[in-house]
Amino acid sequence: MRSDIEIAHSAKLLPIREIAAKLGIPEEQYEQYGRYKAKLTEDYLKSIQDRKDGRLILVTAINPTPAGEGKTTISIGMADAFNRLGKKVMLALREPSLGPCFGVKGGAAGGGYAQLVPMEELNLHFTGDFHAITSANNLLAAMIDNHLNHGNQLGIDPTRIVWKRCMDMNDRALRNIVVGLGGKGNGPVREDRFVITAASEIMAILCLSEDLEDLKRRIDSIVIGYNYDGEPVRAKELGATGAMASLLVTALQPNLMQTIEHTPALVHGGPFANIAHGCNSIRATRTALKMADYCITEAGFGADLGAEKFLDIKCRIAGLKPDATVIVASIQALKYNGGVAKADLKQENLEALKKGIVNLGKHIENMQKFGVPTVVALNSFVTDTEAEAQIVEDYCRDLGCEFAKATVWADGGAGGEELAKKVLKTLETKESKYHPIYELDLPLADKIRTIAKEVYGAGSVSFGAGVEKQLRTLEEQGFGNLPVCIAKTQYSLSDDQKKLGRPDGFEMSVREVYVSAGAGFVVALTGTIIPMPGLPKEPAALRIDVDQDGVISGLF
After folding, report:
1. 521 is catalytic
2. Could you write out the three-class secondary structure of 66-79?
3. Whether residue 71 lies in the annotated active site
4. Pairing of strands 89-93, 264-267
5. Residue in 17, 87, 381, 410 annotated catalytic
6. Which of 44, 137, 139, 318 has its Cβ near the most Cβ atoms within 10 Å?
7. Catalytic residue among 273, 377, 420, 458
8. Contact 277, 269 (CB under 8 A)
């Protein structure tokens, strides 16, 4: 069996100008990054604003497991299937972070014959968007410490600086650091922290900005810390906005790529869904809706994280209305939720499947609570048995949910045609009645409780020492009407990653809340979730190499 990167290397790519020509994009309205990538210009984005929107399809999944679910693979394969059925379709996906690529995943461009290509360029430096975001973030951090060093005219309390440095790599050693060591010339000594770039507020701002003017407004609004009177200090007061925007102006342009089967894709932005809002940029999604009759997009991790944030944060901010949702599941992942060890997942086990399938059931129910018609995509493996597949199909139908198998990893778009037809039928026969799950005028604590109880299945929420005071302070400062972005483990519906299946009635613990005023939401940290991941004992980096001809290997 060939690896993902071997399949990608054997693909016959079209020059990106040919993809652009098929879409009717004039050459002067995109900027090439090599032969197979391009950025769309502002002129092009403005030229299509009056076009009618296509239909919006969100792809999400059950909670991730070591067995894999294949959400991005299904998204790409389904788009290829739409293409094969003669439908005008665009993908709108996130950019991979280097952290997972060198840590656990070894790549995030889909898999098998349902991939974005060139996959190694996408997985590594791509068009430099992540680097621009990292630089803008750290420019603001440098300007904060420079301001402290040169008199601190704003009266910033060094013990209450909340802006964090970032880098696009898993590095647990940087979670808590001390800066300013070595003498007075190095600035005041203070505690600081790093987050991974995908979890930074600048990443969220880029993905939620409508244009450059909105980007600058959001940067202005960033709360970098508090002064000695306890009042918030913003990036605007440091004069940082113009320089930061200059680093981000090119990164703000969506990136055009293609699948192995030459389906066009806009790949832009990459916030994590466990510690950030987990969706590609508003600009890319809106542009894809204008460029095609169908836009297929995804939200990170399970529906409890990425889909909830897509529906409660992104859609609300952007005025989007999803027409259908696809929930990706695999029999192996469901058996894992039923207590089967990873080594035994390829063996038929109907009882474990019935026990673990409740995880899928909760995600189906959640999407129904948002009023969005849902289709379950079973990412099929050769080890799946007919009896196991029948259990999943019957379960979905009992919940009033459409079901389809997909073999896109092995068969590309051809393996997604059954799924594509089911989604098209759903679009034709079921009306989306999308609505957020909470109202913005609720107190912040009640918004957190609503998500915890309605989406996760919690029985109660406990707020750690000082958290209730933090919530009151944020509301007094005018942030009470913002949506909430909950940072939670992706491996469980609860805030305890060991609770698989469908835990119910548990207590969810919130240990800290803070505002991302530029992004436009309040973040709640739960359980033991950490904004700077660490590398595993045997990171994927150990398997990645490049030969003398520049050919990269080891990316999955």
Report:
1. no
2. CCCCCHHHHHHHHH
3. yes
4. parallel
5. 381
6. 137
7. 273
8. no
In the residue annotation, 283 being an active-site residue is answered as no
Decide if 273 is catalytic: yes
Tell me the whole-structure pTM to 2 decimals: 0.96
3-state secondary structure of 370: coil
* Helix, coil or strand: residue 381: coil
- Active-site annotation holds for 370: no
pLDDT of 286 reads: 98
Q: What is the DSSP letter of 299?
A: B
d(CA 193, CA 204) in angstroms, rounded, equals 18
Q: Is 163 a catalytic residue?
A: no
Query: For residue range 354-404, what is the model confidence (pLDDT) as tens digits?
Result: 999 999 999 999 999 999 999 999 999 999 999 999 999 999 999 999 999
Is residue 69's pLDDT more than 90? no
In eight-state DSSP terms, residue 52 is P
The string of pLDDT tens digits covering residues 97-156 is 999 899 987 677 899 999 999 999 999 999 999 999 999 999 999 999 999 999 999 999
H or E element, residue 238? helix 235-238
How does DSSP classify residue 398? H
The CA distances from residue 125 to 95, 213, 532, in Å, are: 10, 27, 20
Residue 205's Cα: distance from chain center in Å?
A: 13
73 annotated active-site: yes
